[in-house]
Write the structure tokens for this entry.
Amino acid sequence: MDQMEFTDKEHPKVRYLEVSPVEIQGQQMACIQDPLKLNEHAMIINPATFFLMSLMDGTRDILDIQADFARHTGQILFRNVVDGLVLQLDEAYLLENERFLHRMNAVRNEFLQGPVRPPRHAGISYPADPEELAAMLEKILNHSVDPSPVPDLDRPPLGLIAPHIDFSRGKETYAAAYGAFRSWVEKVDLFVILGTCHRGLDHGFALTRKNYETPLGPAETDRDFVDRLSSRLSSNALEQEYAHRDEHSIEFQAVWLRHILPANRPLKIVPILCGGLLHCIQQEISPENDPETHEFCEALVDTIAETDGTVCVMAGVDLAHVGPQFGGTERMTPGFLAHLEKRDRATLEFVERIDPEGFYQTIASESDERHICGFTPIYVLLKTTKAVKGTILRYQQTVNPQTQSVVSFAAAMLTG
């Protein structure tokens, strides 16, 4: 970040942003969000403004932007209109410039120097009030759905797969995962939680020694486990700790675990954010032959083996992300959704068989065209668990009618 080459005010450059189509009162618009969460508020813009922002790539000055906009749209933009948008983007830290870098460094330092990892999505994705949150989660657990096939166990499960989509859309699958796990949660001493880092990582995995705070109480990070795991790695997995600040995939699991545990029982976790496996697909190699992934999986296995007590490895993941919101062109017809479910379930068969290589290959063979959000965490879970069987508790899809896009997800329990 510090080596970024900034442009001057006459050559504005818009940062990488998350864009999704939305429809408001019958008009197609674009929702712009900052993946770094330096600005918590989304911008809703019309197609003309979106095109104008696309011209702000750092190579054009304001006059060039005006000229190119007129050439492509036939409309004349006055200088004050362009300047006004540049000012709005600058105030929201959406331009690559010194102001953005200063804010970025301040936010990073504040997080790294803080004693805990605050609940970033409380009051946004779920209630911040403890009583209101507990009531909502209990209502989800009691949600009336067809009963899931829960394995008959005589000891705690060795692994759990749960969603990380928002609680309201994923309630049936959250209920399946944590409803089935509730009777065993007190018998587990440590939860290793593998989460997806949606922003991506420079290296494969990011650790933290910070406790994850929740409105229901803390999820205490096992710092001794983190230190022992870190000591087995050739790279410093703590140097990417900042990735934990805004990522929700672990936070949501911490909230659920804290809810189903008795209030007087400490919750011990090891939060691990996982990057992607796209480089393995591009190099046409198995993660087993990727030095960083192989080393991490071996280190995790060894660290768990030397840890006293019962350890459960979890993956907070979603599955497919398909449609215009995710860069696709598919139409969400009943036939397409049924075909997607068939493909997803074929992939989940490798979870049932505890086959990490088969799981990887079925996604790599299609170049991850379904954009499986839990690709790496599920692979690592399957690679490091001592389980011999996986049971799919529920599969679910949620379609966004505004963007005509779909996200799928599942719950699964891994047993010995």
In short: The chain has two domains: 18-108, 119-415. The first strand starts at residue 18 and ends at 24.
